[in-house]
Amino acid sequence: MPDVPPSRPSQFRTGALSPRKPTRFAYSADTRDRAALASDLGLLALYALELKGEIRPASRDELVLEATLVARADQPCSVTLVPVPARINEPVLRRYVAGLTLPEGEEVEMPEDDSLEPLPEVIDLAEIAAEALALALPLYPRAPGAEFGQATHAGEGVTPLSDADLKPFAALQGLAAKLAAKGDRGPDKD
Questions:
Q1: Which end of the chain, N or C, is more open, meaning fewer C-beta atoms within 10 Å of its C-beta?
Q2: Do residues 135 and 95 lie in contact, with contact meaning Cβ atoms separated by under 8 Å?
Q3: 3-state DSSP call for residue 56?
Q4: Cβ of 134: how many Cβ atoms within 10 Å?
Q5: Using CA of residue 111, residue 61, residue 101, residue 9, what is the dihedral sign?
Q6: Which pLDDT score is estimated for 185?
Q7: Cα(32)–Cα(10) distance, integer angstroms
Q8: Residues with Cβ < 8 Å from 129, sequence gap 6 or more?
Q9: Cβ atoms of 118 and 9 closer than 8 Å
Q10: How would DSSP label each residue in 7-47?
Q11: Who's near 125: CB < 8 A, 6+ residues apart?
Q12: Beta pairing class for 45-59 and 116-118
C-alpha cells in the first residue's frame, strides 16, 4: 500500500467519503500555491484559483466529482509578451471507478470518456484545479492589436521570397477568375 500524505482541507480520502450523500467542497489556493502554479504554467500572475463542487457516490464502485473552476490570471502575449488577462470559468468532471486500469504503452486506445479515472486513495483538489487550469488556459494568448510582423531572410545580394512567391498557384487562381468572368459575358462580347 503506497504511503499517502495526511489529509488536509484540499484532500479527501475516498474510503472516508459518505457512500450515500454528496460531500461538498470549496477549495481556494493560497498565495504561495498560486505563485508556484503560476511559475509552473508560465503565467505572469495567478490572482485567484477556486474549485467548488461536490463528490458524490454514483454506484457502489464509482464516485463522481463535479465542480466549477474559477480563475483569474495574466499570461504573456504570444507575440509581444505583454500581459494578457485570462478569466476562466469552466466545469470540471471526474468519474473515479474502482478497479479501472488505464491502458499503458506508446500506442494505445484511450477510452472515449476522458473523465474516467481509477479510484485513488486520496482525491487532491489542488491537483485537480491545477490540471483543469492548465487545460482551460488559452494556448497562444494575444494582446489586442498584436500581429505577427513579416520576417524576411535572405543572403547578401539575394532577393527574399515573399508569401506570393511561396504560393505558385495563386496566379492560376486569378487567371481562372478572369476566364470565368469572360465566360459569363459570352464569346461574342469581346
A1: N
A2: no
A3: strand
A4: 11
A5: positive
A6: 60
A7: 15
A8: 27, 29, 49, 50, 51, 69
A9: no
A10: P-TTEEEGGGS-SSS-EEEEEE--HHHHHHHHHHHT-SEEE
A11: 10, 11, 12, 25, 27, 51
A12: unpaired
Tens digit of pLDDT per residue, the chain (190 long)?
A: 444 444 446 899 988 888 899 999 999 999 999 999 999 999 999 999 999 999 999 988 899 999 999 999 999 988 888 899 999 999 999 999 988 776 676 655 555 666 788 888 999 999 999 999 999 999 888 777 766 666 566 677 777 766 666 676 766 777 777 888 877 665 555 5
Q: Residue 67: what residue type?
A: A
Q: What is the pLDDT of residue 1?
A: 40
Nine-digit cell string for 61: 464502485
Instruction: Give me the helices (H) in the chain, please.
Output: 31-41, 125-136, 170-185
Contact 163, 115 (CB under 8 A): no
Nearest to 56 by CA among 90, 102, 24, 93: 24
- 19-23 contacts at long range (C-beta below 8 A, 24 or more positions apart): 19/57, 19/60, 20/57, 21/56, 22/54, 22/55, 22/56, 22/57, 23/54, 23/55, 23/56
Please state, in angstroms and rounded to a whole number, the distance separating the CA atoms of residues 24 and 70. 16
- Extents of the domains making up the chain: 11-136
SS3 50: strand
